[in-house]
Design a protein that fits this description.
Elements: H1 3-32, E1 54-59, E2 62-67, H2 70-98
Antiparallel strand pairs: 1-2
């Protein structure tokens, strides 16, 4: 089997295993969660916490970015630039390496 095909199959298998581990971890965290309210440094129960987050969907080299605040979006834009660069490096470099 070609090196590229076996590497691709290995990455797909690794991705599948990581998804399964994440699902099991999420399931176990929900089982062992006590449901207590978070407390801050002063010990007051039920204080408000601010949740920040975002996500990036890569469709080929085109990123779709969503975030709850500007800091999350800026971080995701930097990640998207890195992923686009990796995409273009591999898409232009791999054909030249497989010709040998």
């Amino acid at each position: 089997m070609s090196l590229i095909i076996s590497a691709g199959m290995s990455l797909i298998f690794l991705g599948f295993i990581l998804i399964v581990i994440g699902c099991i971890g999420s399931f176990l965290m929900n089982i062992f969660d006590k449901g207590d309210l978070k407390t801050d440094e002063s010990g007051k129960s039920g204080s408000k916490t601010r949740v920040r987050g975002g996500g990036i969907i890569m469709i080929g080299p085109v990123p779709i970015i969503a975030g709850s605040d500007s800091g999350s979006v800026k971080t995701l834009i930097m990640l998207a630039i890195v992923l686009i660069t990796i995409y273009f490096v591999f898409s232009f470099l791999l054909p030249f390496l497989s010709i040998r």
